[in-house]
Amino acid sequence: MRADSIDLAAELAGPGAATQAPGTPAWLKAIDSAVIVVLNFTLALEVVLVFSNTMVRSVFNSSALMGIDETSQPFLIAIAFLGGAVSYSHGQFIAIKVLVERAPRSWQVFFAACVEWVVVLTALLIGGYSVPLLISNYEESTILLGIGYAWMTLPITVGSALFVLHAGLSLGRKPLPVALAAGLAVGAAILLFVIARPVLGAQPALLYAVLAALFFIQVALGVPIGFVLGVVGIACVFAVGSAKMMSVVMTAQRGSGGFIFLALPFFILAGYITDRADIGARIVAFVASLIGHVRGGLLQVMIVGVYISSCISGSKAADMATIGIPMNRRLGEHGYEPHERAALLAASAAMAESVPPSIALILVGSATSISTGALFVAGLLPAATVALCLMIMVRVRAAGAGWRPIPRASRSERIDAGRRAILPLLMPVILIGGIIGGVGTPTEVSTFAVIYGLMLGTLYGKMNMRGLWKIFTSASLLNGMIFFTVSAATIFSWALTLEGVTIAIANAMGSLGPVLFLPAVIVLTVLMGALLESFVTIIILAPLLLPVAVQLGINPLQYGIVMTESFGIGSILPPIGIALYVSCAICGAKVELASRPLLMYMVVMFAALLLVASVPWITTVLPTAFNFKS
After folding, report:
1. In terms of CB atoms within 10 Å, which of 41, 287, 406, 423 comes out highest?
2. How many CA atoms lie within 13 A of 2 on its CB side?
3. pLDDT at 393
4. Which residues are CB-contacts of 158 (< 8 A; sequence separation ≥ 6)?
5. CA distance 503 to 521
6. How far apart are the C-alpha atoms of 481 and 494, rounded to whole Å?
7. Cα–Cα–Cα angle for 584, 589, 591, rounded to 5 degrees
8. Strands (DSSP E) along 40-133, which ranges?
9. CB-side neighbour CA atoms (13 Å) of 212
């Protein structure tokens, strides 16, 4: 089980539910609280600035607010390192603990101490090398707003110090002999690597084997994925001496910046807002009034509901909570088993990975040269194709399982449900329409989702200042984990590129030819998506294989969408797919029981995805119709 699955389940139960580890000193809690205040207010300010800039440009055709994009980089770097450190203290970092949890209790404590030592030493290295970068950036500033580049490095220095404090205090809470033994073990591993450096630098094959072992050992120990990637990337650069350590910090800084990345925190914030506004219950009631009376209809409602909800929020966890919580109650009332509900909720969430404004689509557009707007439009039909296949599977299974439909809704009930759902259903129309109509970029349109969600929450009486603060805090914590991991993935990808590993992988994939390339991409990304999470895999794989796809004559949009849907399937792959654990937490099901029906749904999803990969028209017809270029 992944370490953050429990915390995510708590997060889904209510914004701000995750708490810091017991025993955290009051002074450190005060520092973390101050960081959260800064990040929350800055997030709100960025939403206002980007929204205002879009409106001024679109309505008044004015460029009075030029330079707003220059504020994005210091904000996102602050999220990655300051928000990342606070998120780490709340236990929200991704880690795989399937093996650790099966070890004896004494060994679990030892492994946990090893993890904290890895975090301390990695943060010390990054923070230490950020100081000379901070000094060298002191005189530099941005062109339009004159923002000092030091403000883009300072969060790395301070955030690294916070990581050291939190991990160090966690070490201090463990038995002293265990903490010392873990420190000696980690220190011995580092010493061996340093001693072997000349040999490793001269023998690439041996170096790659050692790096692979280092990767899997850290994963098995339960080291957060962000630190796993960072450690492997740093070790690779150190062994070969292909770049200075300060370049590692510069790469981490570059990896979390960029205006287009702003769409991520904005859509994540919008997801929490729409969940708070109880939009999911209205969508579920409306869809149930239309198709709930067919055989297996309530499960069909879940599939359609997740698809629609995904058009509102880019966060998979938010989509699962928005639809899963109200649907779980209704399905339970009609006798559906918890493991059946959990399996289909997980499959539906995976299906909706390519439904805009998906975080995965935003990252694909950010990491490659593919247009994010074109990806948004291109993802609609492929996801609908997978959804239709899932609905057919539900219909077939319903005949043998005895799932009884609910009574057909009357005309007045359908009208009433439609009236209550019309405003939430307008949100995806506004988002997609804003992009297609040229009102704004996906980043700019993401602010529409935030503003519109706040309006609906206020209109429905679900929003107050206390609740709003919890929403912003939850968004800042999740953003911190994501952006730190993305920064670490950038270090990892950059290091592999320096050593020529990425070229070798690209050549191997290209040698498969156009027929087998996309099926190979599906298999590779499903496996990596299960192990590393989709946003990490995207940063590593998407830019690597895009030139190969283009060289083989594959449409970049088709490549991007197939890869994105594959990430979704990877996120539910038993026994380590995080979305499976979240769906089981929502539905109160056991993972072992939910895995059985889920495997049937996954077979159908693989078949549907192969259909999408074989028929480019499914992906390209809408972008072509709306004159989008890939």
Report:
1. 287
2. 29
3. 92
4. 81, 82
5. 16
6. 20
7. 65
8. none
9. 7
- The angle subtended at Cα 314 by Cα 259 and Cα 286, nearest 5°, is 145
How high is the pLDDT of residue 10? 40
Structure tokens at 369: 């040269």
What DSSP assignment string belongs to 509-545? HHTTHHHHHHHHHHHHHHHHHHHH-HHHHHHHHHHHH
Please give the Cα distance from 564 to 569 (Å, whole number): 9
- Kindly compute the dihedral angle of the four CA atoms of residues 385, 389, 395, 399, in this order, to the nearest 10 degrees: 170
Q: What is the pTM for the complete model shown? A: 0.85
d(C-alpha 349, C-alpha 319), whole Å: 7
Q: Report the chain's C-alpha Rg in angstroms.
A: 24
Distance (Å, rounded) from C-alpha 456 to C-alpha 99?
Answer: 44
Determine the residue type at 562.
Answer: V
- Note whether 260 and 361 are within 8 A (CB): no
**Beta carbons of 289 and 413 less than 8 angstroms apart:** yes
Q: Is 438 left (phi over 0), alpha (psi -120 to 50) or beta?
A: left
Q: Which residues pair with 96 in a beta bridge?
A: 2
- Amino acid letter, residue 378: A
Q: How far apart are CA 25 and CA 13, in angstroms?
A: 27
DSSP string, 332-376: HHTT--HHHHHHHHHHHHHHGGGSTT-HHHHHHHHHSSS-HHHHH
- Paired strand residues for 2: 96
For residue 327 the two structure tokens come to 């649907």
- In the chain, which stretches have pLDDT less than 70? 1-21, 62-66, 98, 257-259, 314-315, 532-535, 575-577, 630
**Whats the size of the chain, residue-wise?**
630
- How deeply is 6 buried, as exposed, middle or buried, from its count of CB atoms within 10 A (0-12, 13-18, 19+)? middle
CA distance 602 to 526: 11
The 3-state DSSP composition of the chain as helix, strand, coil percent (nearest 5) reads: 80, 0, 20
Tell me the two tokens of residue 258: 């960029």
Q: What angle do CA 390, 576, 612 make, to 5 degrees?
A: 35
Q: Of all helices (H) and strands (E), which one includes residue 213?
A: helix 204-221
**What angle in degrees, to the nearest 10, is found between the helix axes of 617-625 and 556-570?**
120
> What secondary structure letter does DSSP report for 261?
G
| Contact between 361 and 354 (Cβ < 8 Å) | yes
- The dihedrals phi and psi of 224, each to the nearest 5 degrees, come to -55, 140
How many Å apart are CA 627 and CA 630, to the nearest integer? 10
Q: In this structure, what are the phi and psi dihedrals at residue 148, rounded to the nearest 5 degrees?
A: -65, 135
Does an H or E element contain 480, and which? Answer: helix 465-498
CB-based burial label for 124 (10 Å; 0-12, 13-18, 19+): middle
CB 536 within 8 A of CB 229: yes
Side-chain-side CA neighbours of 233 within 13 Å: the count stands at 31
CB atoms within 10 A of CB 395: 16
Residue 152: Cβ within 10 Å count? 24
Task: Count Cβ neighbours within 10 Å for each residue of 40-66 and write b for 16 or more, e otherwise.
Answer: bebbeebbebbbebbbebeeeeeeeee
* Terminal Cα distance for the chain, rounded: 38
